[in-house]
Amino acid sequence: MNSRLSILIAAGILASFAVLGTSLVAFTHLATEERIVANERETLLRSLYALVPRENVDNDMISDSIMINATEFLGGKETTVYRGRKLQQPVAAVLTTIVPNGYSGPIKLLVAVRYDGSLGGVRVISHKETPGLGDKVEESRSDWIYSFNNKSLGNPPLDKWGVKRDGGVFDQFTGATVTPRSIVQAVKNTLLYVRDHKDALYDKQTASPTTDKQG
């Protein structure tokens, strides 16, 4: 009887430790997950505010976002659009454009388009381009990406939206023309999409403006 009781007590202690251990693991995972989410949000906000200055907006751009489907213009199956507003008036939209035809694979961009149609800026957020050549699209590698600042569909004219080798106004890289050519085209396509769907993009009642045709 004593032996059986000892076994039951030991089993109870082990079960208690198991429950405690599982609870600690779950708590640690939850706390870590929350920190990761918070860090990712802060990183995204820094990227957005680099393109749309914090003082120019008074809304939560991450919460005020929509998903759209416009693969022909924006490259991805789904594109997130973060909207910036001040006093409830539209200021700028930041789109997660994909460059599908980079030299070494897709290139992910953030493209900020002001409500007046001009560019607040462009940033490359991920790519697989060749180090020392195509990676000059990174702002840490060169200032090439800043050449989009304040450009619009009229500045330069549409037929000049290309690299200089193709008769456009944007520089290419020595030994790496494909990468800048593809990014210039992707930014131009983003501007075209925003021009043709501006009202829908900023309408809070529009959950998912969609198009896949030239317009």
Q: Which structural class should the secondary elements be placed in? A: alpha+beta
Q: What percent of residues are in strands?
A: 15-25%
* Helix-strand string: HEHEEEEEH
**How many domains comprise the coordinates?**
2
Multimeric organization: single chain
Any idea what the radius of gyration is?
24 Å
Which regions contain 5 or more consecutive residues with pLDDT less than 50?
205-215
The number of helical runs is: 3
Total DSSP E strands: 6
Main beta sheet strand tally, sense and closure: 6 strands, antiparallel
Mean pLDDT across the residues is 86
Shape: elongated
Helicity, as a percent range: 25-40%
Distance between termini? 86 Å
Write the layout of secondary structure elements.
Layout: H1 2-51, E1 65-68, H2 71-74, E2 79-86, E3 89-95, E4 98-99, E5 107-114, E6 119-126, H3 178-202
Antiparallel strand pairs: 1-2, 2-3, 3-5, 4-5, 5-6
